[in-house]
Amino acid sequence: MSLKYKFPENFWWGSATSGPQSEGRFNKKHRSVFDYWFDIEPQAFFNGVGPNVASNFYNSYKEDVKLIKEIGLNSLRTSIQWTRLIKDFETGEVDEDAAKFYNNVINEFIDQGILPVINLHHFDLPVELYEKYGGWESKKVVDLFVIFAKKCFELFGDRVKYWATFNEPMVVVEGEYLYKFHYPKLVDGKKAVQVLYNLNLASAKVIKEFKELGYDKNGGKIGIILNLTPSYPRSQEEKDVNAAKFVEDFFNNSFLDPAIKGKFPENLVEILNKDNVIWESTEEEMEIIRNNTIDFLGVNYYQPRRAKAKEEKFDESNGWMPDKYFDNYEMPGRRMNTYRGWEIYPQCMYDIAINVRDNYNNIPWYISENGMGVEGEEKYINDDGVIEDNYRIEFYEEHLSYLHKGISEGSNCFGYHTWTPIDCWSWSNAYKNRYGFIAVDLPTQIKTIKKSGRWIKEVAKNNGF
Ligand code: GAL
């Protein structure tokens, strides 16, 4: 078969989901910040739908894995919920039911020939640790997270070979401490900077533990999943270029650099120092960050960022914010996914590939999420009852074509995961926008393969399209 885009051998064709977004709260003994937020403020969630049932994966994982197999995926990422696995956060005592559940899930994937990629944190901090210690503001919580990670390695590390420490740690910083879209919805730039640092430290400490326990010698690899939003200036004027450079350093490189190079971007550190908001750190911690970099990188890509110089001087009377250094720029004529309010710009796939190749040692990396959320997909159901999501297939093909170009120019990309295999719960957007290859009818939890599910099966089988 002649293909226009052929991908490297053993390429990962898969999808990503997470524990809190798919499992439901069944039999969970603790609450995450999201569980708690829903309990106290259900109206903050689209149509009042919370994480209680999600896509029922806790009960239907066998059938779900079968469907995932049916659409030909060779790999899949999900996450282990700290609030499910651990009974006592201080000692790391494990909940036996939860250990059994995750063992069953992992075994099921492996039995079906699907490579499990396991992430340790997907925004789901135990709310008790927020109340008791201030969550990620506290280095105590960093150490408790290492205890949880160690348990995961010990319980599942014989079979799981690909681990991620965090999913989109920058979203924790933005959502919880800057822009109020995740509980506790604070606006506190100084705390945000400390959290940013602590999350980097937590990732490095987990990697250190992984290596000390010898999982790297057993074919194990550990990485991090970052949402990269390549940042483009409004114009080539110096002031716009500087604004975009700050955005790139604050929102992307503040995790990318420590994860791969073991150090923070110098320009950023200089600015945070000058503004007196730099994090508290010790030389010993910096050493841990320096010496414990990732084996592979996962990139979640949805949208670019566009920046321009500030139009008005930033009012600092309510405290420091990164927004002191840029304004967001809405480029006229940009293509939008109006359901999600995100720009569509597939060229970024190429720019990311080249950035990793040229500035990050061409480290092995993969696209760990890319996707298109669409509302009201039932209007695309055809006579056979299948959702004809042609827009999604086009979206993927376009993004893949730019990724392919980056790979053909030498970027070391080993896979492409979409968000998400089966429609899942998307935080405060709940089930508003659907992303899956497989649709979920919420009232009945009946799951049906969309047209894109048939498409990915062909792509995976042919290793291209
Ligand atoms: C990502 C996140 C996912 C999912 C997705 C679509 O940023 O990692 O958990 O919610 O957005 O909204």
From TrEMBL:
Gene3D superfamilies per UniProt: Glycosidases (3.20.20.80)
Keywords noted in UniProt: Glycosidase, Hydrolase
Protein's name in the database: 6-phospho-beta-glucosidase GmuD
InterPro entries the record matches: GH, Glyco_hydro_1
Gene Ontology cellular-component terms listed: cytosol
First-tier enzyme category under EC: hydrolase
Taxonomic path: Bacteria, Bacillati, Bacillota, Clostridia, Eubacteriales
A GO BP entry: carbohydrate catabolic process
